[in-house]
Description:
It is built from 13 helices and 42 strands.
Amino acid sequence: MTSKFRSLSEAEIGRLQEQGCTCCDWASVKVAQEFNPERVRLTHFSGDIEIGVLEKTVAFYGRLEKPAGITGATIHNCKIGSNVYINNIHNYIANYVIGDNAVIDNVNLLAVEGETSFGNGTEVSVLNEAGGREVPIYDHLTAQIAYILALYRHRQKAVENIRKMISRYVASVRTSWGLVAAGARIINSGSLKNVKIGPDAVIEGAIRMENGTINSCRQDPVYIGPGVFAEDFIACSGSKITDGTIIYKCFVGQGTVLARQYSAENSIYFANCGGFHGEACSVFAGPYTVTHHKSTLLIAGLFSFLNAGSGTNQSNHMYKLGPVHQGVVERGSKTASDSYILWPAKVGPFTVVMGRHYKNSDTSDLPFSYLIEHEDESILVPGVNLRSVGTVRDARKWPKRDRRKDPRKLDCINFKLLSPYTIQKMLNGCQLLRDLRATSGKSTEYFTYHNVRIKNTSLENGIELYQIGIDKFLGNCLIKHLENKQFANVEELRDTLTPQTSTGTGKWVDLAGLLAPQESVQKMLSDLENSQLSTLEQLTESFRLMHNNYPVYEWTWAAGVLQQRLGKAIEEITPDDIIELATKWKQAVVELDHRLYADAKKEFAATAQIGYGLDGEEETKQSDFKAVRGAFEKNSFVAEIEKHIITKTRLGDELISRMEKLRIKS
């Protein structure tokens, strides 16, 4: 914006008055040196006013260009930048700084009253509608900070200190001035009260917005579209809220899209979520939580990487003391059409939920499962989702669908399908299933665990699938760690296998997208309690450091498990041990890929062709199916599986060859 302003000349005042402009006190109006009064018409000014240079044209949809200027407005106490376009303001604009090249066209009201923090500090009651897990939202809230605030209430001092940091930030942004930043556009919209609008944001057809911040940026603008109602909110860069969406007390993360009459209250959404048609209440939506259907309700739950099917519902109303129940659906899960879960419940990672489940269950140590309803009973099929082609496809598409273009990405997101977090659950699951078999006997048809039933054959298959997954992960880590490294002797091999840090052994946690050793999180919480972490910037950097150190921590964890499985320390490992592990890995990779291949083939079976070739015979049906879906052998994912088998087999053979040479040297 222009920094040098002057008073209007008598001639300029006369010209403005000729053009229908009025003012309570023309002495309170300051303008840029090159101000052109020709560009200001039919406008009433009051309070302190600054106006920049008005000399360029402004481009509109359809390649129409209009001269920058101010027409048909009432403007009170505003600082207006250069080359703005303000037109047809039905009510008035008050107490705003309006940046260069901004457009405010056909708007009812844009005003700030009193001091405001623009939605910062709003308490959002996530997970528990009755309260107790409130997250105070602010401009730079991350999924990880929100996770600690909501779910680590037992670390009272740490949570209290974070809340103090947020309070300080909220105080720092409190002001009686609103902002329409440079390049922002507000067009054909209703009332905007106490709303801060970032650079290049577009607000088009919004009906009412109150007490909120739109954290747009030039690299990744925010879009607010027709019919939107928004109150007590923050929208991050790259987000899109449109098509009659209603939000109340919500945080909308980077790259998140809420559209098609979606409604949400007391909910927080982090990177790349999608909400369409349905509704949400008290939801903690970690990255990539997606719901597409009108009849879908997400309520009082923690989710991430979720794909919610039509009619998905959860219930927190089986209560006597208020809606206090909550649920957790861990990362990567899917809910089928008309699925229902009674809260409280906990669903393990990468689980497919089908049917209606009326008993409180906990399957968190049995990942990659199917949770199915049969005759009002909850049936669990452990591990079966490991061989699902859909699971692998999801894991590969998430990184490609990262919509964030902002150079500063708030949330730390680990896309790993197999990680210490999921593998520790497989190890626990194997032991759990073996214990069930041992206590109930092999002849038992169904085993019961936490209100779910597991069929005998499913139990045996689950152990086998988990073992394949464990072998694949450990082999992945080993081969990656030893890739392109030559060893003169066994001592060099052992030195390479020795972890760089002791951090990583033990339990791992998923902090809404960030996978980290629990000990790292506990250390960070202690630093918070001891005030060694005293700013939000330091806290955010602490999470980022955990995220960046994932490969190092992962190897520490994997090396510990490998030593347990071999029954020897790293100092005792031989080339033969590496050959054994690489061989197991090759078998696991090939076996799992073959199962994925078989699963993919089902998509091309005769039953999948029903409805094709409507007006012809069998040959027409097959031709129509092939024209639409392509041939199985030429499917890109099928080709990728075949290539994967060849590539991974070569990697394993190459490592085995190196170890055989090292064995000869030794």
